[in-house]
Amino acid sequence: MARKLLMSLFVLLLIFGTAGAQEAVQDTIGPPSPAPPTNIVVVDRPNDTGHGVLVNWALSADDGGGKDNVLAYEVYRADQADGEYVFRGLSVKGTGQYEDKDDSPRINDLPNPGFLITEKTYYYKVRAMASGGVYSEYSEAGSGQPMENWFHVGKIPILIGVIIFWVLVVYFIFMARKGTDYYVRPLAGINAVDEAIGRATEMGRPILFVLGTGTAGDIATIAGFTILARVAKLTAEYQTRVLVPVNDPVMFAVAQETVRTAYLEAGRPDIYNPDNISYETAMQFPYVAAVNGIMLREKTATNFYMGVFHAESLILAETGNIAGSIQISGTDQISQLPFFIAATDYTLIGEELYAASAYLSKEPVQVGTLKAQDWAKAILMVILFIGAVLISMNVSFIKDMVTVNL
Amino acid sequence: MTTAEILWNTLAAILTLCVFSFLIKDNPLYKFTERLVAGVAAGYWTMLIYHTNFTDKVILTMQNRQLAYIIPILLGLAMWTRFSKNYSWISRYPIAFYIGISTGVSIPVYMYTSVFKQISATMVPFDLTYAGINNIIVVIAVLCALFYFFFSKEHTGTFGVISKIGIYTLMIGFGAGFGMTVMGRVALLVQRVIFLKDYFIALKNYFVA
Q: DSSP code of A22?
């Protein structure tokens, strides 16, 4: 019995003794744990809508020094100091900051657990990760709140730019109203408007005015409405039909108002027909199919394309070309300009579309704005040239001045 | 292909050929397809807007007592006054509000994307390496193109020469853009032709099997 007891004790000692020895061996030869990061400071992420924080920490003593084995830092977040900490992301070694932002309250109609609620306190812990899957202890928790920011500091250059431009616009409008006669360069496309409407009148065919596939709020569409007003007024005087198919309900209402007002100004409200302005469909290519049909069946003598255009530009212009219409186009969409230049008779390139309004109306507000635009361009050209020369001499303060950090 | 797939693809192939028939001349088949597409798109879009705008932005917001939405709802209702001869003037207010807000919002965006970002990206160093010479060409081309867009000065003399260089620069850029997009369109055509080829092979296999 005593012998059995002694044997059992020996076996037990052997088992625990070996296990202890194995642990001791592993402690000696396994990868060592790095020191944890310290001093967790959580601050609001600046210049945002209140759904982000910046988590800062002092680097682990083994990051760049000591054992120098840190590979990255893992950041964890909880709603309460003693709550469950959930992994949020990684920062590489040598980086003492993590940006935690998420402004989507729901994903696929389900609540998004990562979403940060404005002015709610969140708690963060960070731990260092070393090679071999070894981690440091978690740091002490730090807390902070995401706050809604009313002012985006990074956009100050834009604010200054807008103010300078505004001052120029106000000054030149004031001067134009006082009677200063500013020269406006003639635009071939606009000079051709009268000729094109005259041709349609002689042929007894309607005019087609396409405002593009943008929205009523696009700058190019607004410029298109100004040109439409001029065209509609002339067509009212010549008693020629102007057809305006649109793809947006708001554009439809604005186009109707524009044409109706033009007919009133021409003294011919009696011949205004609201049915000439039609809503086709909001989808791009079905709209194009409908406009192409109008071109071919109504045999329009003149086609205007003024506004925002996308992939439909060449399809429209080529159909008009096949139909033998005179075509005048204008857009600020750089990718579509080549097609208009290739397939239409006259093209207003980019800013020429905006300038056309001033050229047609000769109103002090429009002409003054155009003059201000020219001055703004001159200032920008000087800044660009000086900036490029200085950057060649490794002086970057002008480039830094115009670089906006969003 | 299953029988259902064959039937749907037959419809797609017929409609594709109807659209291609426009290349010969306008004809009843093209007219039918054009009106079918426009009609289906108008109906689809109406239902889409009903669900995404009317249901989500009107009904649900009112059910959730999100009172700020009353303002756009009232503006939207004002658009309906267009059907009245006496009160149609009211509809000008939502239009003015919409265009005013859109323009106001777009000014800083334009200032950032079309002015600051471009100017900053064009400030590139000059030197006598290939990249440096390329940078010199870029800066000169940009400046000349900007000269072309001066509207309050006559384009004559030296100014005219510079602006002419500017428009040539623009045309080189447009030419490159044209070529690139045409390649994209040819790819779309190839895709459609492959669809027709695959359809006819599948049709043959369906009947042979």
A: H
Quote the pLDDT of residue A3: 56
* Tens-place pLDDT, residues A98-128: 999 999 998 887 899 999 999 999 999 999 9
Q: How far is A52 from chain B (nearest CA, A)?
A: 23
Looking at 3.30.70, 3.30.160, 3.40.50, 3.30.420, the CATH number of the domain A188-361 comes to 3.40.50
CA of B66, closest CA in chain A: separation in Å? 17
Chain B environment of A157 (Cβ under 8 Å):
116
Q: Which residues of B touch A218 (CB under 8 A)?
A: 102, 106
Does A292 sit within 8 Å of B125, measured CB to CB?
no
Among B41, B150, B155, select the one facing A374 at the smallest CB separation: B150
Write out chain B in H/E/C secondary structure: CCHHHHHHHHHHHHHHHHHHHHHCCCCHHHHHHHHHHHHHHHHHHHHHHHHHHHHHHHHHHHHCCCHHHHHHHHHHHHHHHHHCCCCHHHHHHHHHHHHHHHHHHHHHHHHHHHHHHHHHHHCCCCCCCHHHHHHHHHHHHHHHHHHHCCCCCCCCHHHHHHHHHHHHHHHHHHHHHHHHHHHHHHHHHHHHHHHHHHHHHHHHHHHHC
Using an 8 Å CB-CB cutoff, list chain B residues near A392: 125-127, 132
**Closest CB from B33, B42, B108 relative to A281:** B42
Tens digit of pLDDT for each residue in A278-293? 999 888 988 998 999 8
Asked if B102's CB is within 8 angstroms of A281's CB, the reply is no
| Type and span of the H or E element at A127 | strand A122-130
Inter-chain touch B82–A355, beta carbons under 8 Å:
no
Domain extents in chain A:
38-144, 153-179+366-402, 188-361
Domain A38-144 annotated CATH 2.60.40.1180: no
Measured between CB atoms, which of B98, B170, B171 is closest to A217? Answer: B98
Q: Which residue of A has its CA nearest to B91?
A: A253
CA A302, CA A324: separation in Å to the nearest integer? 9
List Cβ neighbours of A258 (8 Å cut-off, separation of 6 or more). Answer: A225, A228, A229, A232
Question: Does the beta-carbon distance from A403 to B95 stay under 8 Å?
Answer: no
Nearest-10 crossing angle of helices A284-298, A313-323: 10
